[in-house]
Amino acid sequence: MPLLETEDLVKEFGGLVATDDVNLDVEEDERVSIIGPNGAGKSTLINLITRRLDPTSGDIRFKGESIVNRDPHEVVQMGVSKSFQTASIFSELTVRENAEIAALAAEHGSFGFKFLEHRDSLTGVHEVARDTLDAVGLLDQADRTAAELPYGDKRRLEIGIALAAEPDLLLMDEPTAGMSPEETEATVDLVEEVKRDMGLTFVLIEHDMEIVFSVSDRIVVLNRGRIIAEGTPDEIRGDPEVQEAYLGGVDL
Amino acid sequence: MSDEPAPASESEAEAGAIADTIGIWAPRGNELRIVVGTAMILALFPFVFARMPVVSDLLQGYQSLATLILIWGIFALGFDLLLGYTGLLSFGHAAFWGGAAYAAGVFSQHVSGSPILMVAAGTAFAVLLAWVLGFLSLRRGGIYFAILTLAFAQMMFYMSSSPLAFITGGENGFTGVETAELLGMFALEAELPSAAGLLLGTWLYLFVGVITLICVTLAYRILNSPYGMVFRAIRENEQRAEFVGLNVWRYRLMSFILSGLFAGIAGSLFTIHGTYVPLSSLYWTESGEVVIMTVLGGAGSLFGPMIGAGVYLYVENIVSGGHPFEFIAPFWHLILGLVFVVVIWTFPRGIWGFVRDVRDFVTGGED
Amino acid sequence: MSFHIEAITVLLNGLQQGAIYILLAVGLSIILGTLKFVNFAHGALYLVGTYAGLLLALEINLTSGQLQEWGFSTLGLDLGYIPALIVVPFIVFVVGLAMERFVVEPFKNRPDTDQILVTFGLAIILQELFRAFFGSSSLPFSQPAWAQGPPQVPFLAAIPISSWRYYVIGITAVLVLIVYLLVEFTDFGLIVRAGTRDPEMVELLGVRLSRPYIVVFGIGAALAGVAGVVGGPLNPVNPTIGNEILVPAFLTVVIGGVGSIAGAVLGGILFGLTQAILVATYSAWAQVGLYAIAAVVLLVRPQGLLGEAEVAP
Hints:
With 367 residues, chain B is mainly α. Chain B has helices at 5-25, 31-51, 55-59, 63-85, 94-110, 115-137, 142-161, 165-168, 194-199, 203-223, 226-236, 238-243, 248-274, 284-297, 304-317, 332-346, 350-363. Chain C has twelve helices and two strands.
């Protein structure tokens, strides 16, 4: 059974069809990249999966269960985590607290009544947060206010928050956008390492083709809301329809 | 049934479990310091304000005002949980303050005048009301939340004004408050024996002071619990909080209910203190007053709102009275409004923030 | 009095009260919809209008407040109602421009709560300024002699409603129509409407929005000022009237739908009529019923009756 599957997924905004009959399968342990020209509907698809948007029709199933009627926080609790395109962090909290919030939600669920327990007593949460910060290389900055971090570190914190939620499936929306080559390399290494250590399944939206072709097990190509090609990096590289979509038929 | 190895490990397990339970409740970090410090300040406050030679004459303070400051301080403390920490602005908290005041008053007339029970009754009413109103108002955020809370509070005001006037006394307010002795023994207006009387004044102040201490401790605990972090996360980046798996809506509702709890305690004490419930305690400008106190004192801090309450009430009751403030006395409310706007504009951390900045500057160091 | 006459009286009273709400709500609505600014000081603009109207139209005796203490116990230009009706909107328009420049601009990018707080503070400041100078008691603002008593027209003469109330309805209708035409059919209105949809795009096209915006605020303020003048003879003239009238104004906006002029009109009519009918029938429950209905609409249809998209997150 695939970890994530969408069935005939459609999303319309008034007259615009952003997602057009998408059938996507993601198996456990896979690294899938979704690529496509701007406006292809990649972000819309991710937002549908994370339940930020409601589909016009169609189904989305995670671990076999339909999630189209769930709230975003419920889907996260089921094991789907997303790192945002912009560094969507908690600016006025410390780096450590950023990770702890996500770890708290993962360890203690979406809601609790623990308003009389001192947070120092939550050792599980502290451990997960510490390990996560270590994994993204921010442990030495744990006590800084998140707003003070340089942009590259904020992006890493963003990924860290997504990881601290202890997901089974990690969706990453353009994780290397706006990063320098060194930062990009560091992020790719991080993704590899995390995959190894935590056994995550990835779905990546990326524009950087080098990363896409080196990191992915499978690539899905979207154009105008539909899947126009799917396959291994080699298969996609030579696919004429993909070249048409990106380059308008120019010979590479 | 047998006495040997089982009880040994059992009692060990028990001891471990007890330690765990206490561990959850044990004061950590600064908690003990804060509680003891607050207790000391509360103990000295009425003396310094109302009875100390030279200082009190300068301040022109009096016992009853000291008590009132604590009461509004509790109200503002709880309100800050919602505004300063969770980032939600309600203009309808008069519903919980005034509602609890009326509930406590009516309770004293028809059921029991025990001050402790009156506080319990008023608080229970406020909490239930907060649950209902929060459930309805929190469906929308931002301005809709502010307007909805305002509308609901006004509804309660008008309900108390005419249709329910047979209970509430309508425009004349509720005059049937029948407070009895504390624990059946101590009349609240009576002075405490010997030194305590000089220091604290009346049994009423002791009663209010103890409750204030409990409320401060409770608020401090809440803010240092997972809730504190969640509230701040929601205020910082609500969307991200949802997308790390937190049920933002429920936490907001809890924040609203907790702020209603504090308002309820304060409202009940207000009735006990004044032995009268004015209709104005439900009008939205009363909600406005707690907003001003909280922001003025410093939203997002533990003690700021209480200081804000003190400053506001001092200006309202003493500065407005005349000597030696004759020149500005008729303009007291105007001045408060001006300072309020200045604080929002340029100094959002309020008086408490200013004090901390000065302290940091003087000690030359970080927190 | 026959039932018909009574019913018509109630309806007309409701329309007139609604007219005042409409004047306030249209301004508030376009400010909220266009500038995305929450103006808790809108009631204070009504306050300025009502006092200014009083001082221009009549001469009054002050019995308290600083002005009286400083020797100005009679004050007022005694120019009559028509001049007041013409001049006051300009005065409040200017006050609105000043508010936009000095309060709205700096707070445009600050969170909603800060906007509410600062305008709330401003409302208190204005209220207290008036209280300090003019005293707390209500000042007498009578309807003009030429508008007292029902109009000497067949049918209407039988209804016990003074002509002033008809004038209020009429003035409101004319002004709302003018604003509507302005927004729908002029270049200025086009810029404003486009700026509401997509401010970034408009600026990229080279159109500076700050000037139209300041005018929008001024128009909204002027309408509130007119409400103050026409409402003066009908509502109390005291420092707290601004805050009292703010809540119904906001509810009208939100019920009708933010950003929609038609919505503000509809909301105002509904609010005014409901209030009049309830006062005439179950008067004890009148206000409660009003707020209950408002709450229900807000809960069932948060975007308002005629509103489209959501404004607040």
